[in-house]
Amino acid sequence: MAPQRRGATKTPEGNGGAERRRPSSTKKDQAPREAQRTWLRTAGLGASLMLATFLLWNSLRVDDGVAEVLAHRSEVLVGRFIEVPCSEDYNSHRRFEGCTPRKCGRGVSDVVITREEAERIRGIAEKGLSLGGSDGGASILDLHSGALSVGKHFVNLYRYFGDKIQNIFSEEDFQLYRDVRRKVQLTIAEAFGISSSSLYLTKPTFFSRINSTEAQTAHDEYWHAHVDKVTYGSFDYTSLLYLSDYLEDFGGGRFVFMEEGANKTVEPKAGRVSFFTSGSENLHRVEKVRWGTRYAITIAFSCNPDHGIADPAFP
Ligand SMILES: O=C(O)CCC(=O)C(=O)O
Ligand SMILES: [Fe+2]
Q1: CB within 6 Å of ligand 1 — which residues?
Q2: Nearest to 298 by CA among 131, 179, 177
Q3: Which of 253, 285, 264 is nearest to 81 (CA)?
Q4: Nearest in space to 245 (alpha carbons), one of 297, 206, 299, 294
Q5: Cα 256 to middle of ligand 1, angstroms
Q6: Which whole-number Å values give the CA distances from 67 to 71, 150, 262, 275, 315, in the listed order?
Q7: Signal peptide location in the record (predicted)?
Q8: Residues 252, 253, 256, CA angle at the centre, nearest 5°?
Q9: What separation in angstroms does the CA of 265 have from each of 67, 159, 171, 205, 219?
Q10: Residue 73's Cα: distance from chain center in Å?
């Protein structure tokens, strides 16, 4: 749109001549017309803004069904816990009284793991994953089994590097993993009113690195809604320790508990621990990462000692 000219006669270029030929309109006549045009422009702009806002809001709603934020990135949660009724999933597995969930729910805490610990543990993920990485958007490193995404497959780091693995990971790295695992285990036990010693670390336990690269294989499709007890079998309690910050390090990638009409999101941030009972009372998914890189670690526990694994250690 051409800019409005008040004194057309003063401007030699453009359509100043045409304006000069207009019937002798006085300043008095022009004022209401000018006001009308300004008003129309403002109204048009306002309507466009409202339409754009509505479309954006609607697309987010349709995309995610997001209704509520359970843990906002700016909050520092000492311990938020929401109880939800247990599903019947646990009945089709052997029960371990005092451990198998009778109280179900989900919790988030920002005080279990310090930011400094999260940064150090992220360092382990970075150096391990720098040795490989999926061709698609989602890579994992499993310190217990040694599995590492490479291209469209996985390799066993421990087999591949043999003794040289000691040049990559240090004893402090494994000690840090153990400390983090122990603190998360205590937090889960306390929140669900069970004894920490009734919980067994179970597999898989893995670091994940997600970026916005297009998926190449089914392993890259991390965003599907799922139930951990169905996906992983041995899981009774799942925990996620986030190692990077939503909207600082990456966009998209929020964790979503899926509930009819009222999904609940957890916005990741370094050091935030999210934990929940692994049955279908906690159906969930991860939003697609739109930009940047998202690091997290999945640490899960079983009530069944037969499904227990030792802490990751040098092979
Ligand atoms: O990374 C996350 O936030 C969730 C990952 C997840 O759902 C899983 O590992 O089962
Ligand atoms: Fe999951």
Answers
A1: 208, 228, 240, 255, 284, 286, 296, 298
A2: 177
A3: 264
A4: 294
A5: 10
A6: 12, 37, 5, 20, 46
A7: none
A8: 110
A9: 8, 39, 36, 22, 23
A10: 11
The pair of structure tokens assigned to 37 is 């045009």
Atom of ligand 1 nearest to the CA of 253: 3
Higher model confidence: residue 27 or residue 3? Answer: 27
- Number of Cβ within 10 Å of residue 68's Cβ equals 10
**Contact call for residues 172 and 254 (beta carbons, < 8 A):** no
3-state secondary structure of 289: strand
DSSP 134: E
Please tell me the distance between residue 308's alpha carbon and the centre of ligand 1 in angstroms: 20
| Confidence band, pLDDT 50/70/90 cuts, at residue 150 | very high
Token pair for residue 121? 């543990």
Q: Which fold has domain 68-307?
A: Jelly Rolls (2.60.120)
Q: Does the pLDDT of residue 166 top 70, yes or no? A: yes
The domain ranges of the chain are 68-307
Mean pLDDT across 96-122: 97
Predicted confidence (pLDDT) per residue in 233-284, tens digit: 999 999 999 999 999 999 999 999 999 888 999 999 999 999 999 999 999 9
Residue 287 half-sphere exposure toward CB, CA atoms < 13 A: 25
* Residue pair 287/253 in contact by the 8 Å Cβ criterion: yes
ipTM of the complex in this document: 0.99
Minimum-distance ligand 1 atom for the alpha carbon of 210:
1
Nearest atom (ligand 1) to Cα of 285: 7
pLDDT of the residue at 184: 98
Please identify every residue whose CB atom is under 5 Å from ligand 2, which is an ion. 228
DSSP string across 72-122: -TT---S-EEEEE---SGGGGS---TTTS-SSEEEEEESSSS-HHHHHHHH
CA of 274 to the centre of ligand 2 (A): 11
For ligand 1, atom 3, which residue shows the shortest CA distance? Answer: 255
Distance between CA atoms of residues 214 and 170, nearest Å:
33
* pLDDT for res 41: 73
